[in-house]
Amino acid sequence: MKVLDKLVFLQKSLNLSDKDFCRRYKISLNHYKLWKIFKKEPRTKEISYLVDSFSLDLDDFMNGNSTLRDDKVEAHEHLCKVKP
Questions:
Q1: CA distances, 47 to each of 71, 77 (Å)
Q2: Where does residue 37 rank: exposed (0-12), middle (13-18), buried (19+ CB within 10 A)?
Q3: Cβ-based burial of 75 (10 A; exposed 0-12, middle 13-18, buried ≥19)
Q4: Given Cys at both, which of 9, 15, 52, 81 links 57, Cβ 3.0 to 4.6 Å?
Q5: Around 71, how many Cα atoms within 13 Å sit in the side-chain half-sphere?
Q6: Torsion angle, CA of 2/66/63/59, rounded to 10 degrees?
Q7: What pLDDT, in 10s, does the model give residues 32-80?
Q8: Exposed (0-12), middle (13-18) or buried (19+): which is 58, by Cβ within 10 Å?
Q9: Is the overall model pTM greater than 0.85, yes or no?
């Protein structure tokens, strides 16, 4: 799963609009919209607060092979590999 797909998955799982999702996780709304339109992957620093908020391992989240679990999606629940 690509990083952009993971971000969209988290947004939809939390039932947040683009604006609310970006505001909550300190992501530029303009960048987020451009990522979605052009299918461009965000840079690590652009999603660092979101990754920290979910206690995710940044390298795992940025890895295209990692996946998210959709069985227990709640705000601030770890969904990928947890930080050591």
A1: 23, 16
A2: exposed
A3: exposed
A4: 81
A5: 3
A6: 130
A7: 999 999 888 899 999 999 988 887 888 888 886 666 665 444 444 445 4
A8: middle
A9: no
